[in-house]
């Protein structure tokens, strides 16, 4: 690959080759490649006028829309890197990442309204694949998120000449993942740099039924789903996605049973398990699943083109095939490091002793893996306390640090538990007071994203310790959670058929024995993916669709039961 190649140059080739082809479809808006080029030029010129220059970071705070795609491309044309902001991000965390990344300009709907109709494009920045394309903040073990700087050559390596997915001009990609997370890298730049079409999902949560309709009506051929959403979609009926040419899933361990169901439902769809940390640009290894998995685990596959994988021991020596070692990733996908954190960069990005290229580095993933005789990799857990929750990477230490800021919390340990196949976070805290989950959630809400919120809070007199004096996290992970967590409401039993059915459903999904009709969905540990699963069950029982937003507006069983009794599909 040409080291001077850039995203904007690759996009310009597509503009020249197919100017009148639709590049982006978003909620009734369509932009051709030529129109997307002109609009992004105009915004890039405006950003340049605001003082944005090469290697700056520009915040992007826009919902999923055509304007979002225009903005991301414009930032790159201005020579800067984009920092996409999660709309559900707590204000304190947003302020922190904007300060850490030295962001002076944030693209908002208000800023876009001020862009003149006729503007000039900024000067062309020097061509270099090492220029930062975007900064993605991930959870940090010290309590502070860390900004991964992904270079343009890493993005190009992901979307060109890959065995796991041959992107064609007639493909249609769905942009579904939050742009603040690196799953969106393939969704966005895969189609736009290969002359294909990008369909942007409307803002808000999407039910499996909505997703299937969008795939069908838009002619989507390539879809990427997090592991949790993949499982939910399969349970709702994967045959609704039969128009897909390729279905990619990943971000966490895939259930073999769900994979086998998807294979049966989608015989003509290429099913791919994708593995990789943000620091190695979306995918490090991929496994094309061609046969039923059965009782085995789903492999993470072979290194993708442009990537090397080494399984090393504690002395950084290769382990023999068949033995478990820590996975180190090298090649063109490796990030340049962490924004404004050279010390952490030096610890995690090491000189690559296996490469002849000057300056080549390996990223230490912290993941454990084993290489089979056929070269295929199998995932075998972590070397630290990092976990994946619904596809999001979570450093336990960040949650613990946030909880310790509560004046009444003397000590705390957060662990992942997997009572029913869905991994949840449980917080065990030491305090002279027993607090409700609502109190601790209220404390955490402005500090950590919703996906990092523990599902359950347990008051303990002391944290259990191992013989060497460390917190016994294995014991906490195996601790049986209480039948009913500490809540801000007293238990009130269901009194109608609808309330009883909903209470039993919630109890089953949340692994809580007693759910009262006044209990808050989110205080019980509910989240958007669980809400989606409940809407699927409601659709099957009542033959009607309840939007996921209903759980935010009617977060108790009593309120949701009243909504069902009203018989309105659009409540």
From TrEMBL:
It comes from Saccharomonospora cyanea NA-134. The keyword Phosphoprotein applies. Residues 493-568 form the Carrier domain. It comes from the Bacteria. PANTHER family: FATTY ACID SYNTHASE (PTHR45527:SF1), NONRIBOSOMAL PEPTIDE SYNTHETASE (PTHR45527). Its cofactor is pantetheine 4'-phosphate. Keywords: Phosphopantetheine, Phosphoprotein. Gene3D superfamilies: 3.30.300.30, 3.40.50.980, alpha/beta hydrolase, Luciferase, Domain 3. GO terms for molecular function: phosphopantetheine binding. This is Amino acid adenylation enzyme/thioester reductase family protein. InterPro entries: AA_adenyl_dom, AB_hydrolase_fold, ACP-like_sf, AMP-bd_C, AMP-bd_C_sf, AMP-binding_CS, AMP-dep_synth/lig_dom, PKS_PP-bd. The keyword Phosphoprotein applies. One of its GO terms (biological process) is secondary metabolite biosynthetic process.
């Amino acid at each position: 690959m040409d080291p001077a190649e850039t995203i904007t140059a690759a996009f310009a080739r597509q503009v020249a080759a197919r100017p009148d082809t639709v590049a982006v479809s978003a909620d009734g808006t369509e932009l051709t490649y030529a129109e997307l080029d002109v609009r992004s030029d105009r915004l890039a010129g405006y950003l340049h006028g605001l003082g944005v220059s090469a290697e700056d970071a520009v915040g992007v705070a826009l919902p999923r829309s055509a304007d979002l795609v225009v903005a991301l491309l414009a930032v790159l044309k201005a020579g800067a890197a984009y920092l996409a902001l999660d709309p559900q991000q707590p204000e304190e965390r947003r302020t922190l990442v904007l300060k850490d990344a030295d962001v002076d300009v944030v693209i908002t709907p208000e800023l876009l309204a001020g862009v003149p109709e006729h503007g000039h494009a900024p000067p062309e920045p020097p061509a270099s694949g090492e220029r930062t394309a975007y900064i993605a903040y991930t959870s940090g073990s010290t309590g502070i998120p860390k900004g991964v700087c992904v270079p343009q050559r890493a993005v190009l390596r992901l979307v060109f000449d890959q065995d796991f997915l041959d992107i064609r001009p007639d493909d249609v990609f769905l942009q579904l993942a939050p742009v603040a997370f690196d799953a969106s890298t393939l969704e966005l730049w895969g189609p736009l740099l290969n002359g294909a079409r990008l369909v942007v999902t409307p803002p808000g949560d999407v039910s499996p039924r909505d997703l299937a309709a969008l795939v069908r009506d838009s002619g989507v051929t390539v879809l990427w789903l997090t592991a949790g959403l993949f499982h939910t979609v399969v349970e709702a009926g994967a045959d609704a996605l039969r128009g897909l040419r390729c279905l990619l899933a990943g971000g966490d361990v895939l259930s073999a049973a769900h994979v086998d169901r998807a294979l049966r439902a989608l015989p003509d769809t290429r099913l791919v398990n994708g593995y990789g940390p943000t620091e190695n640009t979306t995918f490090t290894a991929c496994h094309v699943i061609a046969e039923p998995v059965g009782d085995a685990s789903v492999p993470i596959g072979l290194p993708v083109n442009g990537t090397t994988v080494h399984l090393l021991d504690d002395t950084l020596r290769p382990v023999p095939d068949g033995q478990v070692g820590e996975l180190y990733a090298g090649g063109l996908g490796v990030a340049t490091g962490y924004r404004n954190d050279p010390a952490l960069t030096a610890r995690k990005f090491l000189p690559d002793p296996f490469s002849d290229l000057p300056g080549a580095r390996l990223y230490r993933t912290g993941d454990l893996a084993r290489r089979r005789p056929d070269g295929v990799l199998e995932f075998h857990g972590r070397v630290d306390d990092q976990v994946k929750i619904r596809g999001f990477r979570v450093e336990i230490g960040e949650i613990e640090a946030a909880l310790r800021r509560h004046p009444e919390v003397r000590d705390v340990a957060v662990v992942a538990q997997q009572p029913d196949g869905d991994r949840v976070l449980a917080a065990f805290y030491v305090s002279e007071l027993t607090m409700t989950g609502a109190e601790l959630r209220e404390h955490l809400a402005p500090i950590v994203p919703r996906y990092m919120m523990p599902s359950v809070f347990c008051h303990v007199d002391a944290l259990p310790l191992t013989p060497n004096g460390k917190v016994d996290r294995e014991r906490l992970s195996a601790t049986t959670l209480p039948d009913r967590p500490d809540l801000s409401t007293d238990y009130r039993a269901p009194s109608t058929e609808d309330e009883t059915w909903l209470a039993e459903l919630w109890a089953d999904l949340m692994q809580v024995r007693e759910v009262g009709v006044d209990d808050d969905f989110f205080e019980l540990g509910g989240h958007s993916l669980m809400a989606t699963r409940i809407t699927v069950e409601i659709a099957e029982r009542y033959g009607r669709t309840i939007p996921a937003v209903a759980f935010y507006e009617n977060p108790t069983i009593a309120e949701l039961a009243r909504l069902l009794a009203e018989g309105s599909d659009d409540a």
